[in-house]
Design brief:
Number of strands: 12
Radius of gyration: 21 Å
Bound molecules: (2R)-2,3-dihydroxypropanoic acid
Largest sheet: 7 strands, parallel
Number of helices: 11
Distance between the termini: 23 Å
Order of helices and strands: EHEHEHEHEHHEHEEHEHEHEEH
Mean pLDDT: 96
Oligomer: single chain
Strand order of the largest sheet: 8-7-6-9-10-11-12
Helix content: 25-40%
Length: 315
């Protein structure tokens, strides 16, 4: 078995109990040729979302029968190619729900109340006696009584909704196949765009959701809407987002994820004054990352026993 990055020591031990483990010796991701060479004899591969598992890689790894990603998102894996090659694909749903929902709220509040800007204002020594408290200083948005629209009512979307109730927000949601959820009024995507004061994107990136929030979608939103993205950068058309921010229609974009990661430090969207940007840390808490690694191992352990993974990304 091949593992493309270091995992917690206990997790590795649990893996070594059941298989011969070949560990990539660095925290820098392998290039594709390096990965092909490294995993040449592997029947199972544990990877991260920064490893691209494409058709070319699969054809170059004839023994590979299982890919287990330490992530819930599987958009870095060509799922169709895996199906065709008979390769099982495991992922890690369930364990990063709260961490990601918490970070969604950190971004929502951070952008809505201009937390980073306010902190920088003081650090830059701009808070002086003459402006010690001003009626119009660092004004943000109210949340109570406002409408939060959640795009994608999976586990993370529902956890974001649960937190919204504590803030007194009305919650509406859009899911491609409507769900039975008592607390969330389900609406079409157009209605969600038209009615929401804040929009949270919590849907997986697939061919259907790529560029879901494009120029047309943004034109339907309320003036000054705040959009929060903790799902994947590719769901938002970043050019259209930048244009809408520049025109003053969208009021703010708070995002943990980018179409191309790592985002370029000079990227005009990332650097826009109304953008709060993070480096894909939605699931970055100690216990969540350990739980994700354990779940990825569980997938492989089960695969070794009966040829199927516990949490399949192919379902
Ligand atoms: C995932 O697991 O897909 C998340 O994006 C990691 O934070």
């Amino acid at each position: 078995m091949a593992v493309t990055r270091s995992l917690p020591v206990d997790v590795i031990k649990a893996l070594q109990d059941v298989a011969t483990v070949n560990l990539w010796p660095s925290d820098t991701p392998p290039t594709q040729p390096e990965l092909i060479h490294f995993a040449q004899d592997a029947t199972a591969l544990i990877c991260l979302l920064t490893d691209s598992i494409n058709g070319e890689l699969l054809s170059a790894l004839p023994h590979l029968k299982c890919v287990s990603t330490v992530s819930v998102g599987a958009d870095h894996i060509d799922l169709q190619a895996c199906r065709e090659a008979g390769v099982a694909v495991g992922c890690t749903p369930g364990v990063l729900v709260d961490a990601t929902a918490d970070l969604t709220w950190a971004l929502l509040l951070g952008a809505g109340r201009r937390i980073v800007e306010a902190n920088q204002f003081v650090k830059d020594d701009n808070w002086h006696f003459e402006n010690r408290w001003q009626l119009n200083m660092m004004l943000g948005i109210d949340l109570a009584g406002k409408t939060l629209g959640i795009v994608g009512l999976g586990e993370v979307g529902q956890a974001v909704a649960k937190r919204a109730q504590g803030f007194g927000m009305n919650v509406i949601g859009y899911n491609r196949s409507p769900k039975t959820l008592a607390q969330i009024e389900q609406v079409s995507l157009d209605q969600l765009l038209q009615r929401s004061d804040v929009i949270s994107i919590n849907v997986a990136l697939t061919d259907d959701t790529r560029d879901l929030i494009d120029e047309q979608a943004l034109s339907k939103t309320r003036p000054n809407v705040l959009i929060v993205n903790t799902a994947r950068g590719g769901i938002v058309n970043e050019e259209a987002m930048l244009a809408s921010l520049n025109s003053g229609h969208v009021g703010g974009y708070a995002s943990d994820v980018w179409a191309k990661e790592p985002v370029d430090v000079n990227d005009p969207l990332f650097n826009h004054e109304r953008v709060l940007g993070l480096p894909h840390i939605g699931s970055a808490t100690h216990s969540t990352r350990i739980a994700m690694a354990n779940r990825a191992i569980d997938n492989v352990r089960k695969f070794i026993v009966d040829g199927t993974v516990r949490f399949s990304a192919l379902d």
